[in-house]
Automatic annotation (TrEMBL), chain B:
Its main location: membrane. It is found in: Membrane. CDD domains: EcfT. It comes from Paucilactobacillus nenjiangensis. The chain crosses the membrane at residues 6-39, 46-68, 74-97, 199-216. GO terms for cellular component: plasma membrane. This is Energy-coupling factor transporter transmembrane protein EcfT. Signal peptide: none annotated. Keywords: Membrane, Transmembrane, Transmembrane helix. Pfam families: CbiQ. The lineage of its organism: Bacteria, Bacillati, Bacillota, Bacilli, Lactobacillales. It is a multi-pass membrane protein.
């Protein structure tokens, strides 16, 4: 467990670097998003490209929350990544910051609900679930999801959850297991994944 | 204009246009941002690239709203289309003109963000280009051993995390050795004042945009 909930400058640099590193990995997936969007548009499922990719975009939140085990880590991981993206990736402009804050709160919520005491599959799944619900609610307004019929909304929601569960849940757990075996996390306060 | 105030203004407006459906307001915002960027002599090529990026998602989303929803609301399709460009232009009105260091200084001095957050994240953003090339190196090095590290491989993230850990140690030490002490009062080499005009620049646009957002279609 974590010894201190206090953030030192090293923790902040570490969290920001995670966001940047993941951003550098995700850049290569942009073409997948564009390809999916173009392919899905004629069948009326263009927004699904969003939901399929959502897990990749929000992954930094559950991951930092899960490995750093401090209140606020999930939020900071996602939000600082968005700040970086705004300045250096740039394309989504100011909405990146808002989405980043919303996704950050969303993944943080899962860990808040367990009182920052439980860090296992349950809390990770909870974080994935809150991320899906909150980001979906935001897209009801931002991307006009409220206009779609009920069946489509269910489909989009399920696809989004699967994507977030794969990247934020399964992949995060595998990464955490590798970190645990390397004993590198001990100095950041996390262990016993 | 004070960077913090400008950021607050941009975030507030972006947030508001996410919940309202005014095509007029979106178009006015796009026009104002374009004029603002022109005044600041942004290269046309840069502007072109910025405007090109949201085209695919914007077109795809409006087609879906216009033809594949029960309501087939053409007006809302146009609102969503213009909204994407408004987001991007509002964002670039900040990022192309203000630097991260200005923002960090302003957030620390004007909004009293703890300096460790301002300079910690700034230090990390400083190594962004190096991080990009390091991730590529990781992937290429793995390929030479016949291993593909794709965006779904946990090993790639694991390696990236180890790098982040090492670098965060080194950067934090570098900051300490340059005399940075967290949680103490600091003096400022460059002060960023809040002028009365900054308040005006923030409040006046907010007041002007309200009737456009809520009264015009």
């Amino acid at each position: 467990m974590n010894l201190s909930n206090h953030y030192h400058v090293r923790d902040i640099i570490f969290i920001t670097l995670i966001g940047i590193a993941f951003g550098a990995i995700f850049i290569s997936t942009n073409f997948i998003y564009n390809f999916l969007t173009v392919v899905l548009t004629p069948v009326g499922l263009a927004p699904m490209a969003n939901d399929i990719n959502m897990g990749i975009w929000v992954m930094a939140g559950p991951l930092t929350g899960f490995i750093l085990r401090k209140p606020g880590a999930g939020f900071l991981g996602e939000f600082l990544a968005a700040v970086g993206e705004m300045f250096f990736g740039g394309q989504w402009g100011a909405s990146t910051l808002i989405s980043g804050a919303i996704q950050g709160i969303a993944s943080e919520l899962g860990f808040t609900l367990t009182g920052y005491k439980v860090y296992n599959w349950f809390s990770l799944c909870l974080s994935c679930l809150t991320t899906t619900i909150v980001t979906f609610a935001w897209d009801m307004f931002k991307n006009g999801y409220a206009e779609f019929h009920f069946g489509m909304l269910i489909l989009l929601f399920v696809v989004r959850f699967i994507s977030i569960f794969f990247f934020g849940g399964i992949l995060t757990k595998m990464i955490a297991a590798l970190l645990d075996r390397s004993h590198m996390l001990a100095k950041f306060g996390g262990s016993n994944v | 204009m004070n960077p913090s105030f400008k950021l607050i203004l941009i975030i507030l407006i972006s947030f508001e246009i996410s919940f309202t459906r005014s095509l007029t307001a979106n178009c006015v915002l796009i026009a104002v941002c374009l004029i603002y960027l022109m005044i600041h002599k942004i290269k046309l090529k840069t502007l072109g690239i910025v405007l090109l990026i949201p085209v695919i998602p914007a077109v795809a989303l409006s087609i879906t709203i216009a033809f594949f929803t029960p309501a087939q609301d053409y007006h809302f399709a146009l609102v969503l289309f213009s909204r994407m460009f408004a987001y991007v232009l509002l964002g670039t009105s900040f990022t192309l003109i203000n630097s991260p260091i200005e923002l960090a200084r302003s957030l620390e001095q004007n909004l009293h963000l703890p300096s460790k957050f301002a300079y910690g994240s700034l230090a990390a953003f400083g190594v962004l280009p190096k991080m990009k090339s390091t991730i590529l190196t990781l992937q290429k090095a793995a390929l030479m051993r016949g291993i593909t590290l794709s965006y779904w491989s946990p090993k790639l993230y694991f390696k990236a995390l180890l790098i982040a850990m090492n670098w965060s140690d080194e950067l934090a030490q570098a900051m300490l050795s340059h005399g940075y002490v967290e949680d103490t009062t600091r003096t400022y080499a460059a002060t960023i004042p809040i002028k009365s005009t900054d308040w005006a620049y923030m409040i006046v646009p907010i007041l002007i945009i309200q009737p456009l957002l809520f009264l015009l279609p």
